[in-house]
Specification:
Layout (H helix, E strand, L loop, with lengths): L1 E6 L3 H13 L2 E7 L2 H10 L1 E6 L6 E5 L1 E5 L4 H10 L2 E4 L6 H18 L4 E5 L6 H10 L4 H7 L3 E4 L1 E4 L13 E3 L4 E5 L10 E4 L3 H24 L5 H5 L2 H22 L3 H15 L8 H4 L3 H4 L7 H9 L5 H11 L7 H13 L1 H9 L6 H13 L1
Parallel strand pairs: 1-2, 1-6, 2-5, 3-10, 6-7, 7-8, 11-12
Antiparallel strand pairs: 3-4, 9-11
Helix pairs in contact: 3-4, 4-5, 4-6, 7-9, 7-10, 7-14, 9-10, 9-13, 9-14, 14-17, 15-16
Bound molecules: 1,4-dihydronicotinamide adenine dinucleotide and 6-O-phosphono-beta-D-fructofuranose.
Length: 379
């Protein structure tokens, strides 16, 4: 049986990428630090993916097992040696931590086989596989690096499927929205995986997704949190917030249409489709999950700041994006490590210095000034 190894047996790992591989005839080895999940995968050897609809259609996912990357390093290295694909859905900040072990696996593999290995990071980040590749290469010696050519391939990708935090932590089953899109950038003729879309150039796809799905989601999450709302669909039922989401996505939309020469009408239909997905009441998706890790989300290349700086460069409006950034700066959820750190930064150094530090925005930039104005109104 064909083998694939997937780092991160969480929501996207089990509910999306791992499930697609299993349905495409692969045995999926999940690698994770969560001992309980790994044990369950090895005991049950299967789980269910349930659709967030009124009927809750369910698919059984078979041919799965698990390894713990902290305690089973040799087994992980051996599994990398036998895999066709190596994927991750672990969070962009974790990629540097798993890279050394992947590097060891690749280093052994390229002396044992000429079979090709395809590495794809499935994270909400532009160029996530490039980032992973950089960290992997830092852990491979020069002679071995030469053997990667023609044997190990790295492809960037965009992943889109809303998978909320699961209510039953004791179960491997995963509730997911029906919609999904997995776009992979390559010119290689790679083994088919059901549900994987291959494109020559990822930029329009990942930017369209990140600056529509993720920007829209972030606006709802941060404004909802400020307003004491619990979930995304409940927040979107508030007309003022719904209008704010639309206005913000018009700003990112204007940039995307201009940058990628998109058909404006098609793009605005895409926005409406995405907003429809956010309204799914069966997902019960918490604002604190969607708003998680605000420092990462305020990064210069991420869903709020990048479209604002691009809009500014193109002389397009960015006021609503500035409001979303201001709302993110007010996200003080105590159980989120980054939110706590961000609040300390704002308290100790103020908005302009914080934005300079986390978003690389000049302290006197027009965006910063607008964020400061909006922050005062929101707080
Ligand atoms: N949940 C969603 O709807 C979507 C998430 N994404 C992206 O997918 C990635 C994963 O997100 P989720 O699946 O939601 O997160 P998650 O928290 O459900 O899963 C992450 C998994 O990584 C594991 N992990 C953390 N540190 C590790 C380490 N050092 N070594 C091994 N395993 C480790 C965790 O134990 C967990 O099982 C993120 O980059 C996210 O932005 C992308 C699209 C949709
Ligand atoms: O997974 P992240 O980057 O923390 O952000 C949450 C976002 O990602 C998703 O999980 C999936 O695209 C969305 O639900 C949400 O916009």
């Amino acid at each position: 049986m064909k083998q694939t190894v997937h780092f991160g047996a969480g929501n996207i790992g089990r509910g999306f990428i791992g499930a697609l591989f299993s349905e495409s005839g692969y045995h999926v080895t999940f690698v994770d630090i969560a001992e309980q999940i790994i044990n369950k995968l090895n005991e049950q050897k299967s789980y269910h993916v349930k659709l967030a609809t009124d009927k809750q259609e369910t698919t059984a996912i078979h041919n799965v097992s698990g390894l713990n990357n902290m305690t089973q390093e040799n087994e992980v290295i051996e599994t990398i040696g036998n895999a066709t694909y190596l994927t991750t859905a672990i969070g962009p900040n974790i990629l540097p931590r798993i890279a050394p072990l992947i590097a060891r696996g690749i280093s052994e593999r390229v002396y044992q086989t000429d079979e090709k290995l395809y590495v794809i990071a499935c994270e909400n980040q532009i160029g996530a596989t490039d980032i992973l590749k950089k960290h992997i290469l830092e852990n491979i010696d020069e002679d071995t690096k030469e053997r990667l050519d023609g044997r190990v391939y790295f492809f960037n990708s965009a992943v889109d499927r809303i998978v909320p935090i699961q209510e039953d932590h004791d179960s491997l089953d995963v509730l997911v929205e029906p919609y999904y899109e997995w776009v992979v950038e390559t010119n290689e003729d790679i083994p088919a995986v059901e549900g994987m879309t291959i494109v020559d150039e990822l930029a329009p796809f990942i930017e369209r997704k990140l600056f529509t799905v993720n920007t829209g989601h972030a606006v709802i999450a941060y404004l909802g949190y400020l307003d004491g709302k619990s979930t995304i669909d409940k927040t979107l039922a508030d007309e003022n917030i719904a209008k704010q989401v639309e206005d913000t996505l018009k700003e990112t939309g204007n940039y995307l249409v201009k940058q990628y020469d998109l058909d404006k009408e098609d793009h605005f239909e895409y926005i409406e489709k995405i907003i429809g997905r956010f309204k799914n009441p069966y997902l019960n998706d918490g604002v604190t999950r969607v708003g998680r890790a605000p420092i990462r989300k305020l990064g210069s290349e991420d869903r709020l700041v990048r479209p604002a700086t691009e809009a500014q460069k193109a002389s397009l409006p960015f006021t609503n994006l500035a409001k979303a950034i201001a709302a993110a700066l007010l996200f003080d959820f105590q159980e989120d490590e980054e939110a706590v750190k961000l609040q300390t930064m704002v308290k100790d150094t103020g908005i302009a210095k914080t934005l300079h530090e986390v978003s690389q925005l000049p302290e006197d930039s027009e965006i910063t000034k607008e964020v400061m104005r909006q922050y005062e109104e929101l707080k």
